[in-house]
Design a protein that fits this description.
Elements lengths: L3 E7 L3 H12 L4 E4 L16 E2 L4 H5 L6 H11 L6 H21 L19 E2 L7 H13 L3 E3 L2 E9 L2 E9 L10 E13 L8 H7 L17 H8 L4 E2 L4 E4 L13 H11 L1 E3 L14 H9 L5 E6 H7 L4 H5 L3 E4 L2 H7 L4 H17 L20 E6 L2 E5 L2 E2 L6 E3 L5 E7 L16 H16 L4
Parallel strand pairs: 1-2, 1-8, 2-5, 8-18
Antiparallel strand pairs: 3-4, 6-7, 7-8, 9-16, 10-15, 11-12, 12-14, 13-14, 17-18
Helix pairs in contact: 1-5, 1-14, 3-4, 4-14
């Protein structure tokens, strides 16, 4: 490790590695510091899905989309709290971000386009492994090709400032997360600047207690390292933050496993688009399963400890996913008939039958008269076995964070850029507003990670 670089990137996830690549391609001497033993952070435990309009995959599957429609969806889910300039950048560069991951980095995507809650139509693309590992692996390989230095188990303890200028960082080497031990420390200075891509604060109990106290007792899909203490340091130091109270719950997760788990595959890809959610006591639906994550999670939490996600064999076959791992864990159960399902849930068979009959009527007429769910490719739910998972939302994404401009520069409380300080990914705020649409986190990380890497040193 040298004493000085042109660019220091803090965080080895989607945003950080994208920023490092773009800075290197512009002739910068770049280093990446990652506090954990492996790169990836929360990025690697995601499904790796990315969203974009007007792609060749949409054209192949006869889906007509537009930037304006995607922007409208983002602003609607964000309750128009979003910084519109940043949303425009996100939408304008989403397709090039998707193409970059596929054509430049070599990520292979499934030959399908999915729809997630809040999107008006299908514009989400999933890697073949259904995991962020594919994109992290591709980013790592490109960094190696470009000879970008990456140091793991290297924690940035604090920033170095001279007057109002961020000039470097103090790092702890051979750092062991959880035990908070390290072998040695070193000052690392920068010529062009720092890019903070250290993720969100979904595991930071102090910030949650301050901004979202009602979520303190909820489980989280995040890794334990998702505390973002550097964000806290910058907040104390005068950096502007926005939307810190906006914490997104992931509604597709299982009540019967800790953390992110495996149940999200069934929830997001089967239940929401092709199945139904019911209250386990009444066996009644209570929402459209395809509204945005924020609204859906709130409605699910209001039902009690958990909800039931129900689908049949037709839905599972149509979705096309291998659910064996979830079933082997006992997270997802199957039943040969509705009576077995109702008995297992200690629920009313008649109520369940009426709910399914009513929903099937809506599917046949292509109109959900109760909750307005988009009925497109759904089929009636009537072919055993029936698949059921207990579902409860978990803390997933923090929409709040550092205020940035379109270049990725961090802003002070007066809205002026802090010299030499950039940020990208979940550590930033203002892009998603009140809630984030599915698959938009990866788009955000790639678009603004690349922009920070391209613009750093412009001052």
């Amino acid at each position: 490790m040298k004493d000085i670089y042109d660019v220091v990137v803090i965080g080895g996830g989607f945003a950080g590695l994208s920023a490092a690549i773009e800075a290197k391609l512009r002739g910068k001497d770049v280093v990446v510091f990652e506090q954990m033993a492996k790169i990836g952070g929360n990025s690697i435990i995601s499904d790796g899905g990315i969203a974009a309009p007007n792609t060749d995959l949409q054209e192949k599957h006869h889906i007509k989309d537009s930037k304006d429609l995607m922007k409208a969806d983002i602003l609607k889910a964000g309750k128009h709290k979003n910084v519109e300039e940043l949303v425009s950048v996100l939408v304008d560069e989403a397709k090039s971000a998707f193409d970059w991951t596929r054509d430049y980095l070599g990520v292979e995507y499934l030959d399908r386009v999915d729809i997630f809650g809040g999107h008006s139509l299908a514009r989400c693309y999933t890697p073949k492994s259904i995991s962020g590992r594919d994109l992290i692996g591709a980013l790592k390989k490109k960094c190696e090709e470009l000879q970008i230095e990456i140091y793991t188990r290297t924690k940035v303890d604090h920033f170095i400032k001279k007057k109002d200028l961020y000039t470097g960082v103090w790092v702890l080497k051979d750092y062991l997360f959880g035990k908070e031990t390290y072998a040695s420390s070193q000052e690392v200075l920068v010529n062009d600047g720092l890019i903070l891509a250290s993720g969100g604060y979904g595991r930071n109990k102090d910030l949650l207690a301050e901004y979202k106290e009602e979520y303190l007792d909820l489980d989280s899909t995040n890794k334990l390292s998702a505390t973002n203490q550097l964000l806290v340091e910058l907040m104390k130091d005068g950096a502007q933050v926005v939307d810190m109270e906006e914490v997104q719950l992931l509604p597709s997760t299982s009540y019967d496993e800790k953390g992110f788990g495996l149940g999200n595959l069934f929830g997001d890809y089967v239940v929401f688009p092709l199945g139904i959610l019911v209250n386990p006591k009444t066996m009644h639906r209570f929402t459209s399963e395809l509204i945005d994550r924020g609204m859906l999670a709130d409605r699910m939490i209001n039902q009690g400890d958990y909800c039931l996600g129900i689908a049949d064999q037709k839905a599972v076959d149509y979705a096309g996913w291998d659910l064996s791992k979830i079933m082997n864990k006992g997270v997802l159960k199957t039943f040969d008939n509705l009576e077995e399902l109702a008995n297992d849930c200690s629920s009313d068979l008649t109520a369940l039958s009426l709910t399914l009959d009513q929903y099937n009527t809506y599917v046949r007429s292509r109109e959900d008269k109760d909750f307005g769910k988009q009925i497109t490719n759904q089929q009636t739910i009537d072919q055993p076995p029936y698949y059921v998972m207990r579902m409860r939302p978990k803390i997933h994404h923090t929409m709040g964070g550092l205020a940035i401009n379109a270049k990725g520069q961090v802003l002070d409380k007066l809205g002026k850029p802090l010299p030499k300080l950039y940020a990208a990914g979940e550590t930033t705020g203002g892009i998603h507003g009140a809630t984030r649409l599915g698959s938009m986190a990866v788009t955000d990380c790639i678009v603004f990670g690349r922009r920070a890497g391209k613009h750093i040193g412009d001052e």
